[in-house]
Design brief:
Helix content is 37%, strand content 13%. By secondary structure, it is an alpha/beta fold.
Length: 258
Amino acid sequence: MEAFSRTELLIGQEAMTRLSRSRVAIFGIGGVGGYVVEALIRSGVGALDLIDNDTVSVSNLNRQIIATTATIGQYKVDAARERCLSINPQAQLRTYRTFYLPETADQFDFHDYDYVVDAIDTVSGKLMLIEQALHAGTPVISSMGAGNKMNPAAFEVADISETTVCPLARVMRRELRKRGIEHVKVVYSKEPAMTPLADCSDANAAADKTVKHTATAGNLDEAEQPPQGKRQIPGSNAFVPAAAGLLIASEVIKDLIT
């Protein structure tokens, strides 16, 4: 296709054909996951499964590529699907209006996928997702913490066993070891997390509907948890989640064509 001719100049026709025949599942279509979807569809990946039960809110406008004033209130998977088809009308898109959690895990057969992207927030969901992918023999890459950071250049691709600094990576490393899993490819930041200056009432209101699902506080060690009943909304910006998402997408493309 002419739409991908510039990419073909770099990777060749055979690789483009391989991408067009690949199916990738992206779990979590937010700040990081949205940019993964964007890069994969623009790279010629032929089939995507989009999994998320959240809707676009005003507080998403600062960082989520699918968030515009026109998409506010839409399910994120629906907004992402429409955007993908506007880029590649021939793409095969499957959408799931559900959060990936241990109790919803049986909805997905990981043997169907050529690659799995974990861009969700809950530790329990991330652990189950990685377990399912590895059990099916499907490559998986997992996004670690991207909130409360300002430096997009601090992200790295690494094995979970090699990560440092990131509290979420520390928790995931420990919990995966309990499950006999030592090695998973992740994208993480070596930048220490900042402390938000203040909570934004609008952001808190927007987050209320998903707090029971996303459980961002669960990404931290117990010593770092906010007081019982409190949930501190992480700060974010337009470039850090984008950097993480694009880095993840580049790894997926590289692995699919090699």
